[in-house]
Specification:
Structural class: alpha+beta
Shape: elongated
Strand order of the largest sheet: 1-2-5-4-3-12
Strand content: 25-35%
Radius of gyration: 45 Å
Order of helices and strands: HHEEEEEEEEEEEEEEH
């Protein structure tokens, strides 16, 4: 259609008629005079609209799927965050259970030795204080902590307090090369001095060069004058190697400490010493030795008539049972 004056006038007229029909339709409501025409148009053009809708539905569905996919992705991310928080909570519960177990073991040690202890948490490790093997605990002079107090945990001797602040204190660990503590052997009472060797076993010099020591023997602290820096009876470790005496006045043994110095958490500072030496009572009971399992061996030997006979051999064969078998054979 050519753009002429007549065509422009016709377009303006059609637009005016359209607006007039819309106005009449709105004002007429349900009784609109153009309602019949609308229904007729719906009858004619309805199938066409359905066809077009069917054709464009996959596109609309795809758009909706993308939108829903984004929502599902957000939901998955939310669920993953919730799972991470739950795992962290479970991990925290596991850690709390471990700490409760450590605290329970430490209180049992303190009860067995009649030590009055102040519980503390290890809050820092390292050489910041000028030592190679130290930890910082969260109690200090405001909590009654003083220099040269014994520190232990549920496994045994941790170390001694060296520096005290108002709310924190530094503990020199028993594994430090500058650490030395008097020791006493379980049962035999042989005395010695244990020295730290870092991440290696403690080196113990026994005063008696002819002392009889074997692998598996255990040591406790001997104690100090006025119970500082060490109270008596705190478990130290277990012998893992014994050097030959060689006629020396002293004898060197190597002891694996009961305490794992690389995983310290809950510790106790002994603020009240025991009234008497607990000696070996703080050491845990030794596990019962396994009972040997009796063995019975059955062998078949040929007899005079060619038939096989059975012989029973066993470590636990009762002689009375053997006599009964002989009488039955008669």
């Amino acid at each position: 259609m050519r753009d002429t004056r007549e065509s422009r006038l016709l377009l303006v007229l059609l637009i005016a008629i359209a607006f007039a029909l819309i106005t009449v339709d709105i004002r007429g409501g349900e009784e609109s005079p153009v309602d019949g025409a609308r229904q007729a148009a719906a009858t004619v053009f309805g199938p066409v609209e359905n066809g077009v809708a069917a054709a464009v539905d996959p596109i609309g569905n795809a758009i909706g799927a993308v939108r829903d996919s984004g929502r599902r992705h957000d939901r998955i991310g939310e669920l993953e965050r919730e799972n991470a928080l739950l795992k962290a909570k479970l991990g925290s519960n596991d850690r709390n259970r471990n700490r409760v177990r450590e605290l329970d073991n430490m209180l049992k040690k303190a009860g067995a030795g009649q030590y009055g202890i102040k519980g503390a948490e290890v809050i820092a490790i390292g050489a910041a204080q000028g030592f190679s093997w130290t930890v910082t605990i969260d109690v200090g002079s405001n909590d009654g902590i003083e220099r040269d107090m014994t520190v232990l945990n549920g496994d045994g001797l941790v170390g001694r307090v060296t520096t005290v602040g108002p709310n924190t204190a530094t503990v020199l660990l028993a594994s430090d090369p500058d650490f030395t503590v008097g020791t006493r052997m379980e049962k035999t009472d042989e005395l010695g001095f244990a020295t730290g060797q870092g991440d290696r076993p403690l080196s113990v010099q026994l005063l008696n060069g002819k002392a009889k020591v074997k692998k598996g023997d255990r040591l406790v602290t001997f104690g100090s004058q006025a119970d500082k820096p060490f109270v008596p009876g705190v478990p130290v470790g277990e012998v893992i190697r014994v050097d030959p005496s060689g006629g020396d006045l002293t004898r060197t043994i190597y002891v694996r400490p009961f305490v794992g110095f690389s995983k310290l958490d809950i510790v106790g500072v002994v603020v009240v010493a025991p009234r008497s030496d607990p000696r070996d009572t703080v050491l845990p009971p030794r596990p019962a030795a396994p009972k040997p399992t009796p063995t019975v061996t059955v062998t078949v030997t040929p007899s005079a008539d060619g038939e096989g006979g059975e012989q029973v051999q066993g470590d636990d064969l009762d002689p009375a049972d053997a006599n009964a078998d002989d009488q039955n054979d008669e």
